[in-house]
Structures are given as C-alpha cells and as structure tokens.
Specification:
681 residues, alpha/beta, Beta-Lactamase
C-alpha cells in the first residue's frame, strides 16, 4: 500500500488543527458573544414594547390617571430589563412620573445634561421618541461615580393622551456580562469535538485506502497513462491518479456552464432592449440617454420637438401619428450618423440628439442650422395612406451644462414660449426666470395661507362595481382670473417653490386639517400623499399628529396615507417604524407610483401595504403598449399573491378602463371616471 497519502493526512491534520483553533478563538467566540448579547438586547426591547403596549391599552380604558399610575407602578416594579435595567416615566415638562431607583427623581431631570455635552438628556429623549430611534449616551455607575464612559441605551415611547414619555434605562454592558467565560467553554468543547472527529476521520481514511489502492491497480491494468491525464489535481498518489478520471465530467460541466452563460447573455440583451429602446421607433430612450451621459464631463443635448403634433393625431388618427414618429426617427437617426452624434426618443413627440464627444463650437453653427432646415422642405411620406405630411420642429439646446437634459428642456420651453425656432440655454436666463418665478409664487402662496384659500380637491376612486370607495386629496390654491372669476391653481405651479420658500408645511397643515373636517361629510375613505421627506420632517409629523388627535378612531380607520414609492427612500427601517406607528391607529397604507423608479419588492414584502397604486405612466397606454401591459399584469399577480389591493390611476379612456378591468384591477382612478373637485359625497 502506498504510504504517501498518510504523510499528507498528517500534515492536513496539523494544519486543520491550527486553522480550527484560530477559527474558534478569533472568529467563532466573538461572533457567539455578539449574537447572544444581541438576542438578550432584542428580548429586553420586546419586553419593553409589551410593557408600553400594556400601558397604552390601559390608558384607553382607565380614565382615572392616579388609579392608572398605581397599576403602572405595580407593573413596572416587577420588570427588570437585562441585568439591572428598569423603566421610568416623565412628562413633556420634564417632571418625573415614575422612577423606581430615584436616579432621576432625586435631581432636576429637565435640566440634567448628558456628560461631556451641552445637550439636555430630557430634550434628547424627546427627540428620539419623535424619530423612533434608540438613544445611546455615556453615564457613570454607582461603584464608579467619576467615570462617565459607560454606555446607556434608552428606548422611548410617547403616549399623547397621558402626556407620558415611557423610557428604558439600561447599561449596554449588562448584555455582555452574562457571556463572560464563554470563550474558554467553546474552546474546550471544540477541542474535544475536534479530537473525536479526528479519530473518526483517521479510522475512515484507513478504511478507504485499501479500496483506493485496488482501484489504482485495476486502472493500471487497462494501461491508462498518468502523463495523459488532464485533471487539475497534479498529485501522483492514488487520489491524484483517480481524480483524473473525472476530466470527462468536468468538461461536460464546463460546456453546460458556457451554454448557460450564453443563454443569460441572450436574456440580458432582451431585457436591456426593453429597458433602453423605444418600442415604436427602435431608437434608444431616455433611460439609455441618462445612462450614456452619466460619466461624460461635457455633453451637448439638442431636444427636437415636433410642433402641433396633437393636430396630426386629431386630423389623421393615432395610427398615422405613430407612423410620423417612426419616419421622423429614421430621418433624425440618419442626420445623427452624419454628425457623429446619437439619436434618442425621449417621450411623445420629443427626440434628442446627444453629442458626448463635443464637436468644435464652430461646427455647432452648421449643426444647428442644418437641423432647423431638416424638415423645412421635406415632407413625411406615409406610404400606407399615400399622403405627405409637412412638419415643423422647435429645438432646445444645451451645450456643456451641468444638467444637460434639464437645461435643454428649459431652453425648449423658452424657444416655444418666445416663438423661436431654437434657443441655446444659458445660466443667466435660467437664474432670472427662477428668481422671478420664486418671488411671484412666494407672495401668492403667502396670501393664500393668510386668507385661508388653500383648499382640498377630491378625486373619486371606484371599485369594480363602479362605486366610489375613496377619494384622493389634492391641493389647490383658490385665486381670481382677469375677469374676477374663481379659479383653482394646481400644485404643479407652486409646490416646488413652496418647498424652497419654507411655506410647504403651512400649505400641508391647511389641507390636512380641512380634509379631516370633511371626513364627517362622507363615509368613504380619504387618502393623502406623503413623501419620504415628509416622514423625515419632525415638524411635519408633529403637525400631522395634532390634526390626527382631533378625530376619533373610527374616522382614522377611513384615512389612507399614500407614500410615494418613486421618492428616494434612504432608510426603510424608519419607513417601517412610521407605518407601524400609524397603522396601530387604524390608518391604511398605500404605496403610490409603484412600478417606476426603484421598485423594491423585498421591502414591499416587509411593509405589506393595504394598497399598491400603479404609476400612471404604465397605465395611460396599456391598451396599446405590450410592455406596459405585461408589467402591470406582473404587478397585479404579485399584489394578489400578497393579498394587497391594486389601484390604477390615469384611467383616461374606456379602452384603458376595459383593459384594466380584464386584468383584475381592484380600484380605478382617472378623468374617464371622475375629475378632481371640491365636492365629496
């Protein structure tokens, strides 16, 4: 029997032992300590939350505050968090309501500062309760009164009815002390286990050596040369020799892997084509443009807008309009190739020519001049109808600007507004118009707030039986036109300015307050749009809570918060805390604009909203656009599996409604069914 393998086993045994000791001492033990400490911490937090829930439940039943405090005192006296942690209660003025250790009640809690900081502990705890965050701060211990390096953890919950802040008081190291000595215990157990397994391993190895040698001799009989073997294992002992026999299997696995990679590449290309290419014209789309220019330092963007394209659709029909879009795409693509730029279809009847290499400025004169003349004497030939359609275009051009797509769009608006064939963006015009717009709307918003002219409009949402089941609340400003008649201004005109001028909170407060008052006029649900920025804004949350405190639980059950999914959500744990807080009050949750931006299905599974509202961009052409149809169908299947109701917005025609109805949409919203108005039933 060949003995080389025993030498290898010996070395492997020594290396394995050293590796295992390193793993146990430096990796396993700290991980176990951290894991067990984390479990203990989580258990204590769960215990704290149960206590808070118990207090809140009793507060809703027991009207006598003194009697309630007696019950709470009995409860809290029996509670220990971790090793020595406890729960105490204070109110919004800083008065201690309950403190089992007298640690805080023996001092003026409202003026007590966090060591090595100017921050008041009382104020920091209140802030932490608003944002639903754990508060960590340094403190001393009784046996070490001058050492303020011990970390404390506080969980704080606020009961608005009682004006109580219920807070925990725990030292962080309480959760690690109970695992002292666990390293040596794990090491001892591991050593015994390793030795037992080693003995078993050696026994098994000896048992298989004889069969391996026998196999080795049999293979030699068929005169298989070791030098011809191609196995990745180069050893000359029995195992190395036998390993070579797997070469055929390895080759097959490699071939399968290559075939799989090729299939993945094909599927990836199909997905990219759908994501980056316009289905109608086969030009690259806005998503592709944004991706293409994101790493470019200098970019020129020329937006090409077909003038009066709606007239073409009305005169010849949408099918002919689509043929015009296709022909224009071909002409622009040929023109782009001539100048070494790229052609895109951005949306509707707007195209883009993007120069990522920046041709010389002198050549831009020629480029713009030729582009303006491109369709002047060149009709669009529609062979199917044997007609020629003449078109004009307007250009918005941005050269080497920081945000090329946005600035080209500003230039296009300026050109159309000024009845110019083209306009090249410059910073001066943008700045002047922004300042002028901000001053105008700031004053108009100020007057609207002062005169109580911020009003809610309600757009009805229908179920499958064509019954109104809820209303979406939309903001409007009441104003007068030149004839002195009442008009209502859309937030599209003023919302962005209100955020910059710090007037948004006042607008929101008036809308929410009036809509909550209108709850008494209807038995239907009322929904409100909230952005993630709203959720992060402490002042907004305080204002929202004050308005919610004015309505009873039955009315709260008819309130729906629509959270914008397309908004950039940076902290899903905070969002989950927000949803948990208001869902406990009976409020329903909807995810708005779902299907666009970064649709995170994993977090949707965690949040489990009551409703998903599919974005209008997927709905408006669903009866014509196959990609939109398939996307919406997938979203509906996903939502049904999660028992989440699906709402479709932007239902603007009978054809769109019928398509959505057949797909199984639960609720419908759009101008085809009902426009926003002051009325609510």
């Amino acid at each position: 029997m060949n003995t080389k393998i025993f030498v290898k086993i010996g070395w492997l045994f020594i290396l394995g032992l050293l590796s295992y000791l390193f793993f146990v001492v430096f990796l396993l033990s700290p991980k176990v300590n951290s894991y067990l400490s984390g479990i203990e911490l989580k258990t204590s937090k769960t215990q704290f939350e149960k206590v808070v829930n118990t207090i809140n439940a009793r507060a809703n039943i027991e009207e006598d505050k003194e009697e309630l405090l007696k019950e709470v005192t009995l409860l809290l006296n029996s509670i220990t968090l971790g090793k020595n942690g406890f729960i105490f209660i204070f109110d919004s003025s800083g008065k201690i309501i309950y403190d089992p250790t007298k640690e805080f009640s023996s001092k003026n809690f409202s003026t007590m500062k966090i060591p090595n900081s100017e921050n008041l502990l009382f104020e920091e705890m209140k802030k932490a309760s608003y944002v639903k965050k754990d508060l960590e701060y340094n403190w001393n211990k009784i046996f070490d009164p001058v050492n303020f390096t011990y970390t404390k953890i506080s969980w704080i919950e606020y009961n608005s009815k009682l004006d109580w802040y219920i807070a925990s008081n725990i030292y962080k190291d309480d959760f690690s002390s109970f695992v002292d000595g666990i390293n040596s215990l794990i090491l001892n157990i591991s050593m015994v286990l390793f030795l037992v397994l080693s003995v078993i391993g050696i026994f098994i190895t000896i048992k298989i050596i004889a069969p391996i040698n026998k196999m080795y001799e049999e293979v030699q009989k068929v005169n298989v040369s070791l030098n011809e073997l191609e196995s990745g294992i180069k050893s000359k002992d029995e195992i190395g020799f036998l390993a070579s026999q797997f070469n055929t299997l390895i080759d097959q696995v490699e071939n399968n892997r290559k075939n799989f990679e090729e299939q993945v590449q094909v599927k990836t290309k199909e997905i990219q084509d759908r994501l980056y290419f316009d289905e109608l014209t086969n030009l690259r789309n806005r998503t592709a443009l944004e991706d293409d220019i994101k790493d470019s330092d200098f970019v020129s963007i020329s937006l090409v807008d077909i003038d009066s394209f709606d007239d073409i659709n009305e005169l010849y029909g949408f099918s002919t309009g689509n043929l015009v879009l296709v022909e224009v795409a071909k002409i622009l693509n040929d023109f782009a190739l001539k100048y070494g730029v790229s052609a895109y279809r951005i949306y509707g009847n707007v195209y883009c020519l993007a120069d990522k290499k920046m041709m010389g400025f002198s050549r831009y004169d020629e480029f713009i001049s030729e582009l303006c003349k491109l369709f002047r004497n060149r009709p669009i030939q529609i062979e199917e109808l044997d007609i020629d359609i003449f078109i004009n275009v307007t250009l918005g051009i941005s050269i080497a600007q920081e945000d090329p797509i946005k600035t080209a769009g500003i230039a296009l608006k300026k050109a159309k507004k000024s009845n110019m064939k083209f306009f090249v963006y410059n910073n001066e015009i943008d700045t002047k118009e922004i300042i002028k717009k901000s001053i105008y709307w700031r004053e108009k918003i100020k007057i609207a707030i002062e005169e109580n002219n911020v009003v809610p409009f309600y757009q009805p949402i229908f179920n499958r039986n064509n019954e109104i089941v809820k209303y979406e609340t939309l903001m409007r400003i009441k104003d007068k036109n030149a004839q002195g008649e009442d008009i209502y201004l859309s937030p599209y005109l003023f919302l962005e300015v209100s955020i910059k001028t710090k007037q948004y909170l006042q607008l929101s407060n008036q809308i929410i307050s009036k809509a909550f008052t209108d709850l008494s006029r209807t038995q239907k649900q009322i929904s409100f749009n909230l952005s993630f920025k709203d959720i992060l804004d402490v002042d907004f949350i305080v204002s929202l809570d004050k308005n919610l405190d004015k309505i009873d639980f039955d009315d709260k059950e008819r309130v729906v918060f629509e959270i914008l999914e397309s908004d950039y959500i940076t902290d899903y744990s905070l969002l989950e805390d927000f949803i948990r807080k208001y869902r406990s009050q009976g409020i329903k949750i909807a995810i708005d604009d779902f299907g666009t931006g970064y649709s995170n299905f994993a977090h949707i599974l965690k949040i489990r909203p009551d409703y998903i509202k599919i974005d209008g961009s997927l709905i408006k052409n669903i009866n014509l656009d196959k990609n939109s149809f398939e996307m919406v169908k997938s979203l509906i299947d996903f939502s049904k599996a999660m028992n989440i109701k699906v709402i479709a917005e932007f239902v603007h025609s009978k054809e769109v409604y019928n398509t959505l109805y057949e797909l199984g949409i639960d609720e419908f919203q759009g101008f085809y069914l009902g426009e926003p108005s002051l009325n609510i039933e």
